[in-house]
Amino acid sequence: MLKSVNLTKKYGNFTALNELNLSVKEGDIFCLLGANGAGKSTTINLFLNFISPSAGSATINGLDVSKHDKETKQLLSYIPENLMLYPNLTGMENLDFFCGLGNKNYSKQELENLLLQSGLQADFMNRRVSSYSKGMRQKVGIALARAREAKVLLLDEPTSGLDPKASNEFSELLLEMKGNGVATLMATHDLFRAKETGTHIGIMKQGVLIEHFESDEVSFQD
Ligand code: ADP
Ligand code: ADP
């Protein structure tokens, strides 16, 4: 579903990403690991078409991401480290609003179910998002991905700053999405969690994918 061929991003003389080749298929959770500045966000941002490559290509379903129409974009869901929601609206209202932008209209009951399935407690749904923990906001993000029936998830450090419980819950949700055939590309610092939930692990260093393996090929021992 997601594929990059010699994907490269330069800023002046500086190469943020150098000839990246990867593919992420249905039901894959591809975790990009690496130190700050390794090029993880750059990769995610290229697939989102937030930035343009200097060379090479990023495709989703065989189509260059710069050529995606509105319909194809609907297949994509992006959850950054800090999801932007309207703080003065409730979780329900946020979900309703963002679904509407994608021309999907759900009944109140359906919105509630989406949030419940994404692990948001019922008594929070009608409270303002400003009272939510970060983990709760990320659950709204997952609910939105489900609502849009996203087939591709792009995640940039989605669990950084979450406590272990919230982080576990988030992993569970990712595994559920994987079960539904979603293709996930996730930038993360968390080796342990990458090992736990990832089907593929890529290690990036200074813009280069230096290692790449399927996660059951590795055993991490200290
Ligand atoms: P990571 O997500 O792995 O921390 P990034 O992809 O954010 O790394 O950044 C890779 C490198 O590219 C870093 O050295 C960063 O400073 C640089 N970089 C990112 N965006 C820009 C930009 N707009 N202009 C110049 N350099 C940038
Ligand atoms: P992340 O935590 O995802 O690595 P950063 O804090 O590195 O994010 O970058 C945040 C934003 O600033 C990104 O859009 C990135 O492209 C941009 N950026 C990062 N490094 C630079 C830089 N050296 N010059 C200009 N923009 C940058």
Automatic annotation (TrEMBL):
Signal peptide feature range: none
Protein name as catalogued: ABC transporter ATP-binding protein
Species the sequence originates in: Roseivirga ehrenbergii (strain DSM 102268 / JCM 13514 / KCTC 12282 / NCIMB 14502 / KMM 6017)
Keywords: ATP-binding, Nucleotide-binding, Transport
SMART domains: AAA
Transmembrane segments annotated in the record for this chain: none
Domain of life of the source: Bacteria
Gene3D superfamilies, per database record: P-loop containing nucleotide triphosphate hydrolases
Domain ABC transporter stretches: 2-222
Any one GO molecular function term: ATP hydrolysis activity
Pfam families from the UniProt entry: ABC_tran
